[in-house]
Design goal:
Elements lengths: L1 H7 L2 H13 L3 H8 L5 H11 L2 H32 L3 H14 L24
Helix pairs in contact: 1-5, 2-3, 2-5, 3-4, 5-6
Length: 125
């Protein structure tokens, strides 16, 4: 299904999304880099383009790919912090995050205690 959306995209649309995802630059700069008209008209056209459903689907696909590729960098950073951060608080937070993601999150417990006497009185007379 994602391949069908990719086939509908023009080269400019793909270039626009690829530039946005890769650089995070503002839409006006990405529009110029992708070959849209310079200035306000190119930004407006790019803004309309980025709202098209098939373009949005391609953008979500590219963002997901980028996050997946960079997840290893984030994981390594958390491990580095857990092992060697100067602050023990930072080490603790990193260690807890690692444990949470590994499935060792503590069980959230809440204790509810109701004490009292409940009486219902119905007077039909």
């Amino acid at each position: 299904m994602q391949q069908v959306a990719t086939l509908k995209l023009t080269k400019k649309q793909m270039a626009l999304v690829d530039h946005l995802v890769a650089t995070g630059e503002p839409l006006a700069r990405a529009a110029e880099a992708a070959g849209y008209a310079p200035g306000e008209s190119g930004r407006v056209t790019a803004s309309k383009t980025i709202r098209l459903p098939h373009v949005q689907q391609y953008m979500m696909q590219r963002v997901t790919e980028q996050l997946g590729l960079n997840a290893t960098v984030a994981a390594a950073k958390v491990m580095q912090l857990a092992r060697g951060a100067k602050s023990e608080y930072v080490q603790l937070q990193a260690a807890q995050d690692i444990l949470d993601r590994a499935g060792f999150k503590p069980i959230d417990r809440s204790q509810v205690q109701v004490a009292g006497d409940i009486r219902v009185s119905i007077d039909l007379g």
